[in-house]
Design a protein that fits this description.
The chain is an alpha/beta fold. It folds into two domains: 14-159, DNAb Helicase, Chain A; 190-264 and 314-463, Rossmann fold (3-Layer(aba) Sandwich). It contains 18 helices and eleven strands. The protein has helices at residues 16-32, 40-45, 56-70, 77-84, 88-98, 107-134, 140-151, 166-185, 197-200, 233-246, 265-277, 281-286, 291-304, 319-330, 356-371, 385-392, 406-409, 459-463; strands at 202-204, 208-210, 222-227, 256-260, 310-313, 338-342, 377-381, 412-418, 427-437, 444-450, 455-458. A hairpin with an 8-residue loop joins strand 8 (412-418) and strand 9. Helix 1 crosses helix 5 and helix 7 (140-151) packs across helix 14 (319-330).
């Protein structure tokens, strides 16, 4: 029975005669252009390099031709033989090409064929590497992640077909900007949301769109959120998860993956229900609720939570497993709109080293790797004891998050800091302090955190203005 490896077998048919013919023909074209009137080497170099040749010795000959032409020498057989040196097999390859009659006019035809064969060999090598990684011993999810990493090396086309010009870059950038403009023009928000106007921004009839402190949650960005214990970090990321999954009049709901490393699924849903209905969570823990309250809880959870496209994932304990899950979901029909890691320091490294400091750094860089798959990632981070002391005084900076590397890998680092640490009320003012923002200014916005409902809101919304 076929097991899917047939395509990687060594005896797969390969038109080696065509490979050899194209390589020898290209060298013959260069040798026929001794006076460089037809610029054969320059024209061929748009398609191939010495590494493009399947026959190593043909590659040596081509490297010698390129070197000779670059040095201003004539690319005749005698000169190239001297450039090659005493290697008998390379000299034999040169003699074979010199015995053929080459036409400089055919250079593109031969070069494109050499490039196409090189492209196929490269793709096949990457696929073989990915297949081997996927079948490696050990847990399957890290193996799948490793296979996906290998597949990133797949070239998008032969060398000659890759347009790396600034014109092509501008064209693709304008296409992306226009797609987002049209979505916004149609009343759709292209980004995931925090669910707080002061962070997401909003439209105002008087002056258009106000960007807010962050502007939303953008694909490819890593947002690190830190603060004191009990400061509302988990509440804020869940507000973002619910807002992104539920959508609104400006955006369609998007799938959210929440990697919860502290709370069980039941604990999370129970807290959301208690906050949503204003019932103290301790009463739910003790079962001290009436039958009517249970009916209200059941209706609220079924109506408000059950159908949301959110996955609460508690069995992925390593960053590598998380990335594998994200990649699997991205390959599905619904994609992923937001990833939440709560919290980063409890995530383990599958390839753990002896240096705990390095593990901290690697967690942050791996989280950024997840974001680089094209999805926004919010990672809740802890703070050191000294940083917590500074936070109570309102003094925080990018280095106050745990994990060296946060200041480099994160696109945005923000802290939740109470404006009055002595305030013991149910509704407190909290500063959303941006300590780092790649490509944007630092900012601070004051929010109101209702600890009873677990909701953050803009201060102006609470004052009625």
């Amino acid at each position: 029975m076929a097991d899917g490896t047939t395509a990687f077998a060594d005896d797969v048919d390969s038109p080696l005669s065509d490979v050899g013919d194209a390589e020898v023909g290209l060298i013959a074209c260069a040798l026929a252009d001794e006076e460089r009137k037809h610029k054969v080497v320059a024209r061929a170099s748009l398609h191939v390099g010495p590494e493009s040749f399947g026959n190593t010795y043909n590659g040596q000959v081509w490297r010698a031709i390129v070197a000779a032409v670059a040095g201003g020498a004539v690319a005749d057989p005698v000169t190239i033989a001297e450039e090659i040196g005493p290697d008998p097999r390379a000299q034999k390859a040169l003699a074979e090409a010199a015995s053929r009659i080459g036409s400089p006019a055919a250079v593109e035809q031969y070069a494109e064929r050499v490039a196409a064969h090189h492209y196929r060999r490269t793709v096949r090598a990457v696929l073989c590497d990915a297949y081997q990684r996927a079948g490696a011993a050990g847990p399957p999810l890290p193996a799948v992640t490793a296979a996906h990493e290998a597949l990133k090396a797949l070239p998008k086309g032969p060398r000659s077909r890759l347009d790396d010009s600034m014109k092509a870059s501008v064209k693709s950038t304008l296409r992306r900007i226009e797609e987002r403009r049209l979505a916004a023009e149609g009343g759709m928000r292209a980004t995931a949301r925090w669910g707080v106007r002061a962070l997401d921004g909003w439209h105002c009839e008087d002056f258009g769109f106000y960007e807010g402190a962050v502007g939303g949650l953008f694909p490819g960005k890593l947002y690190v959120l830190a603060g004191l214990p009990g400061g509302g970090k988990t509440s804020l990321v869940w507000q973002a998860a619910l807002a992104t999954a539920g959508g609104d009049e400006k955006s369609k709901g998007k799938r959210v993956l929440v990697f919860s490393l502290e709370m069980t699924r039941e604990d999370i849903c129970q807290r959301l229900a208690a906050q949503g209905l204003g019932i103290p969570e301790t009463r739910l823990e003790n079962g001290a609720i009436t039958a009517e309250e249970y009916d209200a809880i059941e209706a609220w959870m079924n109506d408000r939570l059950a159908e949301l496209p959110i996955n609460i994932i508690t069995d992925c304990r390593t960053i590598e497993e998380m990335r594998a899950r994200v990649l699997a979901e991205l390959a599905g029909p619904d994609g992923v709109g937001l990833v939440v890691i709560d919290f980063l320091q409890r995530a383990k490294m599958g390839r753990r080293g002896d240096d705990g400091h390095r593990d901290e750094q690697d967690r942050v860089y791996e989280a950024k790797g997840i974001a680089n798959e094209g999805v926004p990632v919010i990672a809740v981070s802890s703070m050191s004891k000294s940083s917590q002391a500074r936070a109570t005084e309102g003094k925080v900076g990018v280095s106050d998050t745990s994990g060296s590397g946060t200041e480099y890998a994160a696109d945005l680092v923000a802290f939740l800091v109470r404006t009055n640490p002595e305030d013991k009320g149910a509704r407190v003012e909290v500063r959303f302090e941006v300590a780092k923002r790649r490509g944007g200014p630092l900012s601070s916005v004051t929010l109101v955190f209702d600890m009873t409902t677990g909701q953050f809101s803009t201060r102006s919304e609470n004052s009625g203005s």
